[in-house]
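Write out the bound-state structure for heme C.
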Amino acid sequence: MAAEPSGTLRADTQAELWAAGCAACHATGGGEGGFPALAGRDASELLELLLRQRAGAADSTIMHQHARGFSEAELARISAVFAAQRRP
Ligand code: HEC
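---
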């Protein structure tokens, strides 16, 4: 049987790769070094924060640059990856 190209049961590998880039600063499950922790937080809260940063509406030093690199749908997928992680 052929593999499903994008079955709903498959993990969102692409979003996990994107999230790995965020983890360089946000330390995946941690919040050390002054970067806000993302793991285990509500996905809609994370998406809302990211969209505000993307729009330049949030108090941001560098995060708006990162948020601008993704579409809203992509940011929603990344938010889901962090929401599914265990809270530190
Ligand atoms: C170069 C370091 C860096 C990278 C990479 C980075 N961030 Fe951030 N992030 C920050 C900093 C610093 C802040 C605090 C706001 C500011 O000063 O820009 C922040 C804030 C946030 C916030 C708001 C948290 C809160 O509680 O207010 C979210 C959500 C967030 N980042 C998500 C992400 C996601 C998702 C990615 C990957 C697409 C990412 N960040 C990549 C440094 C980074």
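---
The helical segments are 13-26, 43-54, 63-67, 72-84.
The pocket of heme C is lined by residues 18, 21-22, 24-26, 35-36, 38, 46, 49-50, 60-63, 66, 78 (CB under 6 Å).
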